[in-house]
Each structure stands twice: as structure tokens, then as C-alpha cells.
Design a protein that fits this description.
Pfam families: DUF433. This is DUF433 domain-containing protein. This protein is mostly helical and 92 residues long. Helix content is 59%, strand content 4%. It has a single domain, classed as Arc Repressor Mutant, subunit A (Orthogonal Bundle), CATH 1.10.10.10. The protein contains 4 helices and 2 strands, in the order ββαααα. Strands 1-2 form a two-stranded antiparallel ribbon. Helix 2 crosses helix 3. The longest helix has 23 residues. The chain is elongated.
């Protein structure tokens, strides 16, 4: 049976399928945001259909945690975009 875990040093601590780097939020985005059927996502990620449904169930059972993960991702993307637009510091 698939298990969702959090480990600080994998995916920045986001919930993921145990033994993988497949994040719960990533599965949700593919199925709901991307409109892919769960069976196609399972095939694409080389996961079982049960694992995909476990990730989706976790997403829906932990809405506050998922909102926080999404907020943290958005902040990280904004920070990286901001850094990418700044010229590098001159070497001394």
C-alpha cells in the first residue's frame, strides 16, 4: 500500500509518495490542473494507480497543508525569478 511521507531533505519537505520523489502536489497538478486521467499519470510517473489515488486522497484530506505547500512554492519561484533578473555582483 502506498504511503505519503515528508522528509526535510527530499522535495523541500513537501509530502511525497514514500520511496520516490513524486510529490502529492505534483500528482494533483497533473490530474486536476493538467486534465490527465489518473491512469495516464500513473503510467507517466511509473507509479501504480493506487499510488496516484493515495496522493490525490492525501491532497484532499490535508487542504491547509497543501495550501501552505503551494504558497511556499510560489514564494520560492518568485524569489528565484527576482534573483534571475538581477545582474550579478561584480567580482572584487
Amino acid at each position: 500500500m502506498a504511503t505519503v511521507v515528508r522528509t526535510d531533505d527530499v522535495l523541500g519537505g513537501e509530502p511525497r509518495l514514500e520511496g520516490t520523489r513524486v510529490g502529492v502536489l505534483d500528482v494533483y497538478e497533473l490530474v486536476v490542473g493538467g486534465g490527465y486521467p489518473p491512469a495516464d499519470v500513473a503510467d507517466q510517473l511509473d507509479r501504480s494507480l493506487g499510488e496516484v489515488y493515495t496522493a490525490l486522497a492525501y491532497y484532499h484530506e490535508h487542504p491547509e497543508e497543501m495550501r501552505e505547500c503551494r504558497r511556499e512554492r510560489e514564494e520560492a519561484v518568485a524569489e528565484l525569478a527576482d534573483r534571475a533578473l538581477q545582474p550579478p555582483e561584480p567580482a572584487q
